[in-house]
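--- STAGE predict ---
source: upstream dedup step, 1 unique chain passed
mode: sequence only
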Amino acid sequence: MRFLVWFSLGWCGLAALPLKAQDPQFTQFYHAPLYLNPAFTGTTEEFRLAGNYRYQWTAIDAQFMTTTVAFDYSAPTIRSGFGLLIQHDKAGGFLTTTGATGLYSFLVPLSDQWHLRLGLQAGVGNRQLDFSQLVFVSQVRPDEADVWEGGSSGSRWFADFAGGAVLYSRHFWGGLAVHHLNRPNTSFFSGDNAIMPLKISAHVGANLPISTLNGDLYLLPAALYRQQGPVSQLDVGARLAFERFPLILGVAYRGIPFKKNFNSTQQDAIAFTTGLRTGQFTFGYSYDLTIAGIRPYSGGSHEIAIVYEWATKRSRSRRGISCPIYDKPMNSGWNLRQ
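--- STAGE serialize ---
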């Protein structure tokens, strides 16, 4: 069954109105650090390879799928990090966005306890629209005028830039990132404007050891606030990691209950997360239970994250402050620097 959208009702007005698109999101944003903020580039011992996959609203015929693959390298001798991020997003089964960006970060040691990283990101993106998956008013009502835009290629290339900063210690981290600094035009029509709005995100978290009779536990709270165009979103949650077991469990809430969008309370989902951390390998899974108005029809959302870190013997001998965005503190035995 095709995904029948009311997109065609406003098709004629697209040329005159800017398209307010929003970026895809990840529940496990701490497992997608390069997607979250270019300043996280190089916040690993030496090498890191990360993959993230999200399937949103599984019960809806349309497909909303997002995949990212990221690789970064830490070069402490020059206080730098280098990375590559590849993204692919499929929205509604007819709109796809693909991008490839290079990332760079520079480390500024502020003290023995605090470090600051500044990051930049630059790349290209391509947005494609599959007209064959759209149903126009003129196709189902012969008395309507044809709205087909024959001059559209259905594809648009654009440059994209981002910047960010992250401040962190052994147990705390916080950052700010701004994506689409150049506000690229993603319109499919020559001479028209569909300006991609800035995405501004602020994120904080902690990695707190809690001593118990059965060994240490680690509380990992985190929060992410995003603003893009007229849309804002807040994720607040916490995970619990165990000293003697590789299991990680967590729960999070997405929404801003005191704010309304389109005359309804802005509540999105409650997310349940689980994961395993064994040595250099991290696996994470989350399920979003939709609590918004589309709850009976959405089927929820699934997300998988896989992170692999490795280092040469020379890098393992180096000591320093590692960013605790998803690792345990250095004295826990889970960090690769031990």
